Amino acid sequence: MKRFAFLRTWEALLVVLLLVAIVIGSSLSPYFFTGFNVSSLTRDLMEKAIMALSMTLIIITGEIDLSVASVLGLASVVLGAVWQAGVPLWLGIILVLILGAVAGLVNGLLVTRLGLPSLVVTLGTLGLYRGLAYVVLGDQAVSNFPAAFTNFGFGSVPGTLIPWPFVVFALLALLFIGVLHLSWIGRQIYAIGNNKEAARFAGIRVARVKLLLFMVSGLLAALAGVIFTARFSSARPDNALGFELDVVTIVLLGGVNIFGGKGTLFGVILSLFIIGAVRNSLGLVSISGDIQNIVVGVLLIFSVLGPNVVQSIQAALTRRHLAASSSTKKV
Fold first, then answer.
1. Residue 303 is part of a domain; what is its CATH number?
2. Is pLDDT at 192 greater than 80 in this prediction?
């Protein structure tokens, strides 16, 4: 039975859902499963993918960060503004990465030092950071970035269809998988999500871990802002508007418990490509973005209800198996 234990996991269901999404996408459009479209689909996901990595760790601790898309937008316009002011691009990128970390630090301090709910805090900073983005550039846009920078955003590794942003994501994903699933830091993150008081008594510095995770979230959101700006060759205050819905859906659909303590990055990566396949296939048949958002909203509800239903079914099967075993022994 242990050999087939994976088949009873949420990740196994996600594999099935991904295959179903691929089949449906291929039936809707002959272009869906072409190399060019798969490359484009992957490229379109990368900003959300990068932000989902840190969001996964935050939600496992029992918190949430709804400000990531606004930090992305703020980082994008600040990069455009400093470039327009004559600052070297490499220095501007460093500055916006620091800005992202500081934005995450503000979120973390409000949550850990003042004890405010992260949902409320980041909902507030979602509006604050997006508002600051409009203050920096207003309704203007900066688009005169160097060709080498923009080629990184929408170009591919020479001789392949692998987008350069995917290389960045793959390296970060390997790092985060190692931290969450193979290190003592990951064990602390799970412990905090399961019971923060018990974790505190066990010597884990709960506030420090959460503060660090919020800073990492801001840093990665700013990095996503740099990639988004390069990909579209445009710094605008409305860049990535509404991306937080997809990021949260990706993480929860990936099997991460909204209350913390459970989930894997493997599930989140599978969920990432499910969302990407759904949006891409709908886009290929000219389904509007509003309808796509409705579908993603339905997936978000399913992602919250689904794991609980699966756990209830597994618990019922386990009780039935134990009852059957007990009856057999009595006989």
1. 1.10.3470
2. yes
